[in-house]
Design brief:
globular; five-stranded mixed beta sheet; five-stranded parallel beta sheet; 656 residues; alpha/beta; GMP Synthetase, Chain A, domain 3; Rossmann fold; 40% helix
Length: 656
Amino acid sequence: MNTAEVSKELVSIPALLDRNARTFGDSTAYREKEFGIWQSWTWSDTKVQVTNLALGLLKLGVREGDFCAILGRNRPHFYWAMAAVQSVGAVPVPVYQDSAAEELAYVLEDCGARIVFAEDQEQVDKLVEINDSLPQLEEVIYLDPRGLRKYDRTHLHDYNQMIADGAEADATLNKELDARKAKLDYASTCVMLYTSGTTGRPKGVVLSNRNVIESAKNSSEFDHLRREDDVLAYLPMAWVGDYIFSIGQAYWCGFCVNCPESADTLSVDLREIGPTYFFAPPRVFEQQLTDVMIRIEDASPFKRWLFNHFMDFAKDVGPDILDGKPVGAGKRIKYALGEALIYGPLKNTLGYNRIRVGYTAGEAIGPEIFSFYRSMGINLKQLYGQTEATVFITAQPDGEVRADTVGVPSPGVELKLADSGEVYFRSPGVFECYYKNPESTASTKDAEGWVATGDAGFIEKDSGHLRIIDRAKDVGKLADGRMFAPKYVENKLKFFPNILEVVAFGDGRDTCVAFINIDHGAVASWAERNNIAYASYQELAGHPQVLATIKTHVEEVNAQVAQDEMLSGCQIDRFLVLHKELDADDGELTRTRKVRRRIIEEKYDDLIAALYSDASEVSTETEVTYEDGRKGSIKATLSLIDATTHRSSSMKVAAE
């Protein structure tokens, strides 16, 4: 379908649904695993579910322009709810399901949600807890009835009963629904998504049908997505990426969205589905590689040798074969043997044996991790995007995939750089505004539609690829004037399987220091193999052998960083291993697992001060939030460890 036809007909998500049900209604649109069994719904089934739910919403009194929040995990019912909300002219607002009551209250109050779709008793209880502070909240629609039998039903409604009520709607309501759907056009609001809030309160990003449909269309054509594809919907529904993959591109292409049973069954469900189109943040790929390496360590010596031999070989020839470059017959034969013995079984174990297009984004991925997956023949690429861009700013075309760039401008996207190095973009995906926040809108998007990303980078002259250095606000200078870009060194350290998170400091200082979180699973496995006993995460993180291992990693990275003339000042001079994992519930990470650097800097100012002192250890007490919401504190004495740093090559030349 060409662009002219798109502008006339397919101008909303409900319109795309009507097209799909009419054109390929028997194709599978959704799958969900429940109680260990996969259930399927076609596009025709989806149209019936969405229409009946929309009629139920009309019966409930939902008005055009109302905000309806979605609070739960990835389930077909909630994707249907978003389409039904749009069908009646209201605005869906998916919310992070693991939001604490306070975070949830802020979003619901900010958008003025009248209706909330809540998955189960846990989510309903959050709403009950904050109900007094939300006078505009009128109705709650729940999906799972377990535990809710004795709740007051005055404003509590069963999801399935809503659909049943809609199925019995009279002609008047059907006519009203048709009229509201007919009003929807490219300028109509499609969804409102809240930013992760790395530097302050989350902001509501208003995206129009134009933003979503044009971005979905352009990106689908870029990667040749098709109706036969399968995607796994497991990332938060409140994240813009999930919305584009599981609604925008799914409705545009007509491919199938698969919802796992739970986070605990994700790896099994991934293997059973074998998606052909897959997205994961670097943390997922890092964790999977860590798990693989742990299993290899437990294997027999021959199996370890076989794995390492073929993986070392694959790193040399695998990416070239994947990109269609010339590779000798002998190497192809050996690679085929590796596919039979190692790569194929490993991809099958991971659930990656059918992937045609894979993406990672959100953070920089370690080049070694990136190379590991591509060497096995997995078409893993990088993209760069934001909520304000409806995801896509740059992406890597097939055959031009590199670990050190985030690709070229996506179709329809223009790029430019400010004198400061900050990246600006303009595209059909540029958001409409921040909800009720004209000041922030004006400071982010100018009158010509250029949006400031907040990231610093540069465009390579020869290839046109964009390279991101760091968040613009985080790029600073050491006291001697050398550049300080914390993510550069943080990402290098996070390549090591036993390092989960790193936060570096150094702006305006003489040297760079860092907090490090160990990866509990990887280090615990190491401790078990070496018969090292420990009683808690804190004890394991402070074990002398663990600290010594982390020190070798830091010094190895320092040697690498010293080779970069521009960023050699980012070498870690001193570090400590934190006594607790950085946690979203403690406000240290966003719900998308991004570091809230300023909050960490304020919360642990005593530890930063100690790293810049002559002390060899520091005692501290930290407040923590338990799973049930209770507050507590933990005390610890942490070792402050010096690491060897190196003079950069440019400094050596200058000295000579």
